Amino acid sequence: MLAEVLIFVPSIARFRYDYLQMRLEKAQIASLALEAGGMVTPELERELLANAGVFNVVLRRDEVRQLVLSSELPMPVAATYDLRMASSFDLIRNALAVLVDPREQVMRVIGQPVQQAGLLIEITVLQGPLRREMLDYGLRILLLSALISAITAALLFLAVRRLMVLPIRRVVRHMQAYAMAPEDARLVITPTARVVELRDAESALAQMQTDLIGALRQKARLAQLGGAVAKISHDLRNILTSAQLFADRIEQSADPVVARAAPKLVNSISRAVSLCESTLAFGKAEEHPPRLTRLSLRPLVEDVAEGEGLSSDSDPACLIDVPPGLMIRADAEQVQRVLANLVRNARQAIEATGQSGGTIELAAGEDERDWWIKVGDTGPGLPPKARDHLFTAFQGGARKGGSGLGLAIAAELVRGHGGRIELLRSDAEGTEFLIHLPKSGPVDDETA
């Protein structure tokens, strides 16, 4: 509005000045008929005055004031304005006075003749037509200013929306999505704002989310670790007691049975060491967020099978049904750890039966929303207790002496990708696990 005032007031004053100056020039042109020495009839004089829009025309040359054209004034002269000496302030003040005064009155205007045709020219005109012209001009200026203001407001709105509203809305969506699944590492916001302050806020939010994910994992693991201390102590005491008994027999007896007891002693001690190492590693909670990249799944699955010593000719046999061109977006190292854990569990389940001819199958595919990976075996199936606490640390072990940490860590890694792992079936014919990895991100950024 201040800009409107600064533009409108000088422009309306300029319009009034130009309007009066035009009347002076027309009046001077009308007076040229007399200067030519011709006869001017009353009818022609009225026509010249009407065309000029004035009542009287006075020229002053050589200090002589001459009434060139004249007609009867409808009313006395109410005001006189000298355009020769008027300052900008005077022009603005007189223009505003005309706008606020609706009375019809006659005013005298004095100006400088063009082409140095004399000392001055003086005319008398009605104020009403001038006021109407000024109001019409002002209305057009206001409409044009309103249009410019609307366009400016629209551009400002789009700029604010793109630079401020959309980034803030994106931060809010990330915060809402993160609150729903704080363990999903894909929900950590990536700073993209162009405004420095907003980018700093996004960076701070990303750091906070990263720290909170680690803290939540640490807290959850420590909680599970604390709840399992009693069970670990009991199991470890039993294992070490067995090892101590076998050691006593070795020290006190030269019986040949010692040769058969020695492997059991080694096995008991190894189980104790393995349990301690797994427990300590789980308590550290040092898993990094997944580094998502595009990768071909079949070579990764083949590496997992080869790392476990499995092939189509091994016992148990490993069958791979993964399309060669299937590409996924995931952390290759973490997906390999998940699959290696499931394949290792499947191999151990089959070997525990003491029978040959078992099969492990790895299949994969995709749909509109997810990539899926299936790991199945022809083992004896999981016991009911293991199925009830399948992905809970220290409670979901599927074999005797197992701690259940492998499946708990595998489930955590899959959740870090925003996916899920589920048990499809487990019965006398075998066990099948299904992994879902989402294709799309958790938050779709809005673009302007």
UniProtKB/TrEMBL annotation:
UniProt keywords, alphabetically: ATP-binding, Kinase, Membrane, Nucleotide-binding, Phosphoprotein, Transferase, Transmembrane, Transmembrane helix, Two-component regulatory system
Known catalytic reactions: ATP + protein L-histidine = ADP + protein N-phospho-L-histidine
Q: InterPro entries recorded for this chain?
A: HATPase_C_sf, HATPase_dom, His_kinase_dom, HisK_dim/P_dom, HisK_dim/P_sf, Sig_transdc_His_kin-like_C
One of the record's GO molecular function terms: kinase activity
Which parts of the chain span the membrane according to its record? Answer: 137-160
What are the EC numbers? 2.7.13.3
Q: Which Pfam families match?
A: HATPase_c (PF02518), HisKA (PF00512)
SMART domains reported for this sequence:
HATPase_c, HisKA
Q: Where is the Histidine kinase domain?
A: 231-441
Protein name according to UniProt = histidine kinase
* Organism expressing this protein natively: Gemmobacter denitrificans
